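hiii, so i know i said id send this last week but things got crazy w the move. better late than never?? heres the sequnce for the chain we talked about at the cafe, plus the structure i predicted for it. fair warning i was half asleep when i ran it
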Amino acid sequence: MTEPQTWAIPEEPGPEVTAVRDRHGDLWKREGDAWRFARRLGALSTWDGLLRHEGPLTDASDEEDR
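okay and structure toks below
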């Protein structure tokens, strides 16, 4: 019998990453220990939840300043 594969969830980036874009191109902003969906109030996620449901993610910190 083959052993099941397991994958580790990448660690959350440091505080220098203030925003990420999900696989749909939507913006999520860091808010303390959570991530807030920029277009919908009240939508919060943890890092691992964001990766599992919305990943892959790309850094959008520079875009946030524009």
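btw The longest helix spans residues 47-54. thought thatd interest u
miss u guys!!
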